[in-house]
Amino acid sequence: MSEFLSLKNIEKRFPTSGKEAYIALTDVNLDIKKNEIISIIGHKGCGKSTLLNIILGLEKQSQGEIILNGNAVSEPGPDRAVVFQHGSLLPWLSVYENIEMAIRKIMPKLDALTLRERVENFVSMVNLDAAKDKLPCDISEGMNQRADIARALSIEPDVLLMDEPFAAIDSLTRTTLQELLMHIQQTVNTTMIIMTHDIDEAVLLSDRVVMMTNGPAATIGEILEVNLERPRNRVELQHDPEYIRCREAIVAFFYEKFAKEDE
Ligand SMILES: Nc1ncnc2c1ncn2[C@@H]1O[C@H](COP(=O)(O)OP(=O)(O)OP(=O)(O)O)[C@@H](O)[C@H]1O
After folding, report:
1. What is the rounded average pLDDT for all residues in the chain?
2. Substitution candidate for ligand 1 out of 17, 22, 52 with most atoms within 8 A of CB
3. pLDDT tens across 233-244, in order?
4. Residue 146 and residue 126: Cα distance in Å, rounded?
5. 10, 15, 36, 213: most buried, per Cβ within 10 A?
């Protein structure tokens, strides 16, 4: 694995009504390898979404740079796809049409047969064959997230960014979605960056867990390697010493070193 996404000295300041700007992020440095799966975990307000928007090119950092495949990121591009907490499918298009439209935009020259095969392949990847002709409003929130993941992956991005993708989903469905994502991680070659609040989710899904300190001026506090083989089985992991070690390290970071009062 070679390093291909680097966050170098990222700082983000937001203007305020006063004289001083609000420093949301400072001195964020991270090298991510191709096909690596990273979770970024932190208390509310530590700047996860801000960092995600900077990597996507939707927000400009105040200092530093993001290098992807040797180039500085300055705007959004098809090499980065995103799944947000609340799905972002176009409500007037079916699941199939949403995925089809995403592919058409990036690969306008695909012939009709290849396009159809490609859409159906991604529909199947997230087990939505039976619901492919439904509108987003006629399927559950979990199915919307599955469709959104399929749509994001269908353009074959180099990096898939996910902003608390399962946070709005009930816990049993969330488990199913995490299982599905683990299966997808085994089948596609895409670097993934998952923003989350959920300790078990971070350990289960990731190769490394990046722990953010609290804001203002949040930064990376610790990085934890998760040395668990894949495929991973969540039930067996409950007794795995490495899983327990990772969990304890994250709990210690967030509840001892960087505890946060309820606001
Ligand atoms: N446009 C903005 N203007 C001013 N301050 C902002 C702006 N966007 C974010 N912030 C502040 O920057 C900090 C980081 O916000 P951000 O939304 O990135 O955190 P987060 O970790 O994603 O939070 P959450 O877990 O609640 O989604 C917060 O204190 C927030 O209030």
Report:
1. 95
2. 22
3. 999 999 999 999
4. 6
5. 10
